[in-house]
Amino acid sequence: MNHSIHSADRSTHLKIVVVALVAGIAVAGFGIAARTGTSDGTQTARIIKAGQPTALTSSNTTAVR
Predict the structure, then answer these.
(1) Rounded distance, CA 45 to CA 63, Å?
(2) Which residues cross the membrane (predicted)?
(3) Chain-centre distance of CA 61, in angstroms?
(4) CA distances to 12, 27, 46, 47 from 51, in Å
(5) What percent of the chain lies above the pLDDT cut of 90?
(6) SS3 65
(7) Could you give the C-alpha distances from 64 to 43, 51, 58, 59, 61, in angstroms and in order?
(8) Residue 29 — φ and ψ, nearest 5°?
(9) Calpha distance 17→8 (Å, rounded)
(10) Phi-psi region of 41 (alpha: psi -120 to 50; beta: other; left: phi over 0)
(11) What is the pLDDT of residues 40-61, one digit of tens each?
Protein backbone atom coordinates (compact mmCIF):
# COMPACT_ATOMS: atom_id res chain seq x y z
CA MET A 1 0.00 0.00 0.00
CA ASN A 2 1.34 3.42 -0.95
CA HIS A 3 1.00 6.09 1.70
CA SER A 4 2.21 8.96 -0.47
CA ILE A 5 0.98 10.18 -3.82
CA HIS A 6 4.58 10.84 -4.83
CA SER A 7 5.67 7.24 -4.40
CA ALA A 8 2.48 5.73 -5.83
CA ASP A 9 2.69 3.63 -8.94
CA ARG A 10 0.70 4.00 -12.15
CA SER A 11 -2.20 1.77 -11.09
CA THR A 12 -2.71 3.76 -7.90
CA HIS A 13 -2.90 7.00 -9.87
CA LEU A 14 -5.39 5.38 -12.24
CA LYS A 15 -7.55 4.25 -9.30
CA ILE A 16 -7.58 7.79 -7.89
CA VAL A 17 -8.60 9.26 -11.25
CA VAL A 18 -11.37 6.69 -11.70
CA VAL A 19 -12.78 7.25 -8.20
CA ALA A 20 -12.72 11.03 -8.71
CA LEU A 21 -14.45 10.69 -12.08
CA VAL A 22 -17.17 8.43 -10.68
CA ALA A 23 -17.72 10.78 -7.73
CA GLY A 24 -17.96 13.78 -10.06
CA ILE A 25 -20.50 12.03 -12.26
CA ALA A 26 -22.51 11.03 -9.19
CA VAL A 27 -22.58 14.60 -7.86
CA ALA A 28 -23.58 15.97 -11.27
CA GLY A 29 -26.29 13.34 -11.64
CA PHE A 30 -27.65 14.09 -8.20
CA GLY A 31 -27.71 17.81 -9.00
CA ILE A 32 -29.60 17.28 -12.23
CA ALA A 33 -32.08 14.92 -10.57
CA ALA A 34 -32.68 17.32 -7.67
CA ARG A 35 -33.88 20.17 -9.88
CA THR A 36 -37.45 21.20 -9.33
CA GLY A 37 -39.57 21.77 -12.38
CA THR A 38 -42.56 20.63 -14.31
CA SER A 39 -42.58 17.54 -16.45
CA ASP A 40 -43.28 19.41 -19.71
CA GLY A 41 -40.11 21.50 -19.44
CA THR A 42 -41.70 24.93 -19.00
CA GLN A 43 -40.81 27.16 -16.10
CA THR A 44 -43.07 29.57 -14.26
CA ALA A 45 -42.05 32.60 -12.24
CA ARG A 46 -42.84 32.61 -8.56
CA ILE A 47 -44.17 35.95 -7.34
CA ILE A 48 -43.44 37.08 -3.80
CA LYS A 49 -45.39 40.11 -2.69
CA ALA A 50 -44.12 42.48 -0.03
CA GLY A 51 -46.10 42.94 3.18
CA GLN A 52 -47.24 46.15 4.79
CA PRO A 53 -44.52 48.75 5.45
CA THR A 54 -43.52 49.38 9.04
CA ALA A 55 -42.25 52.60 10.55
CA LEU A 56 -39.43 52.57 13.08
CA THR A 57 -40.06 55.34 15.58
CA SER A 58 -37.38 54.74 18.19
CA SER A 59 -34.23 52.75 18.61
CA ASN A 60 -32.10 51.83 21.62
CA THR A 61 -28.86 51.74 19.66
CA THR A 62 -26.09 54.26 20.09
CA ALA A 63 -25.04 56.33 17.12
CA VAL A 64 -21.34 56.25 16.31
CA ARG A 65 -20.23 59.33 14.41
Answers:
(1) 41
(2) 12-34
(3) 37
(4) 60, 38, 16, 13
(5) 25
(6) coil
(7) 48, 31, 16, 14, 9
(8) -65, -40
(9) 13
(10) left
(11) 666 677 888 888 887 766 767 7
